[in-house]
Amino acid sequence: MHLPTTEETASWISAKELSVIGEKPCIIVNNARGNLVDENSLIGHLRKHENTIYCADVFKEEPYYGELCELKNTILTPHISTSTFSARIEAERQAIENAIAVLEGKPCKYVL
Prior knowledge:
This protein has 112 residues and is of the alpha/beta class. The protein has two domains: 1-79, Rossmann fold; 80-112. It has helices at 15-21, 39-48, 85-103, and strands at 26-30, 52-56, 74-76. A three-stranded parallel beta sheet has the order 1-2-3, with no helix packed on it. It is elongated and about 60 Å long. It starts with 14 loop residues before the first helix and ends in a 9-residue tail after the last helix.
């Protein structure tokens, strides 16, 4: 899943959604925000259903050392997708373009 954090998406995957999955094999991938998943419900589901796999590189608190690390049906990695050399160069280029635009009295081209 790849969703922004909003009131509507907080705990978007909760006990209710996990109960629909039930015994069916399932892979849940979260590379968006840690609070999209109700972690306690997820842990309970993963302990009961080893055919569900949870993959994530985002967590409510980072670095993450929680219970998900203990489970065999999880794949957890640090959120480092922007740590590549090319990503850093691009971020620096965009920041410089924004700074020049502001100094020239123009709006920023790149806004988050």
